[in-house]
Design a protein that fits this description.
Number of helices: 5
Distance between the termini: 50 Å
CATH superfamily of the largest domain: Rieske [2Fe-2S] iron-sulphur domain
Strand content: 25-35%
CATH architecture of the largest domain: 3-layer Sandwich
Strand order of the largest sheet: 1-6-7-8-12-13-5-4-3-2
Radius of gyration: 19 Å
Order of helices and strands: HHHHHEEEEEEEEEEEEE
Structural class: alpha+beta
Length: about 190
C-alpha cells in the first residue's frame, strides 16, 4: 500500500481524483494497478477493451502469432494463416468447433476479424472494430446485426452504409470482407 501512495504522490491529489480510469492506468505501473484493483478491473478498462479470450459459441479468440521466415506472413497454431491482405482459416481446427449453427460467430482478436456462420456453405467476415468507439471484444449477434455491448450500438451485416472504425457512428454497417469457402478452408481478403 505504501508503494501505491508513493506512486500516486507524483500526481497531485486533485488531478488524481478527476483523472479518468484509462489515464490512471496509463500513468500507473500495471503491477501496482493489478495489486490494488485486481485483474477484473484491468480487463474491464484495458485499452480499446480488446484483450480477452473465452471459448464459447460466440467467443473472442486471441492467437499467438509468429512471423514466418518470409516476414510478410504470419501463422497461428489455431488454424489461422495470414499473408498480407489474405487470411486463410482452417475451419476444421478445434478453434472453430463452436461454429456449428447459423448465427454462431467467433471474434478473432489476433487478426481483428469476426467470422459469422450464415449457413453450412456460407460464412461472412467483418472488421471487429466498433464504428462507435473502437472496442473489439464486446460483440453479440442477433437479428442480422452485431451489437457492441460497450455502449449498446447495433450495426448491420449486409455491407451497406459501412461506418469506419472508431468514427463515433452509432448505427450503420460493419466493414465486410470478401470471404469464400472451399471445403473446410475459408479464405478472406481484407483489402
Amino acid at each position: 500500500m505504501i508503494f501505491i501512495f508513493k506512486t500516486i504522490n507524483h500526481i497531485s491529489l486533485d488531478k488524481f481524483l478527476v483523472m479518468k480510469r484509462r489515464k490512471f492506468l496509463q500513468n500507473t505501473c500495471p503491477t501496482v494497478t493489478f495489486a490494488f484493483f485486481g485483474l477484473s478491473f484491468i480487463q474491464a478498462c484495458s485499452k480499446s477493451d480488446d484483450e480477452g479470450s473465452s471459448y464459447s459459441s460466440n467467443s473472442n479468440i486471441t492467437g499467438s502469432t509468429g512471423q514466418s521466415s518470409q516476414g510478410s506472413s504470419s501463422q497461428t497454431n489455431d488454424g489461422i494463416n495470414q499473408s498480407g491482405s489474405m487470411v486463410t482459416i482452417d475451419l476444421s481446427n478445434s478453434t472453430f468447433s463452436n461454429l456449428t449453427n447459423p448465427g454462431d460467430f467467433i471474434n478473432l482478436l489476433s487478426i481483428d476479424m469476426i467470422i459469422l456462420k450464415i449457413s453450412n456453405t456460407e460464412f461472412r467476415a467483418f472488421d471487429n472494430c466498433c464504428p462507435h468507439n473502437g472496442s473489439k471484444n464486446s460483440w453479440s449477434y442477433s437479428n442480422n446485426e452485431f451489437t457492441c455491448r460497450t455502449h449498446g450500438n447495433s450495426f448491420n451485416i449486409d455491407g451497406s452504409n459501412v461506418k469506419d472504425c472508431n468514427s463515433g457512428a452509432t448505427s450503420g454497417g460493419l466493414k465486410k470482407y470478401d470471404a469464400s469457402l472451399s471445403g473446410d478452408t475459408l479464405t478472406v481478403t481484407t483489402s
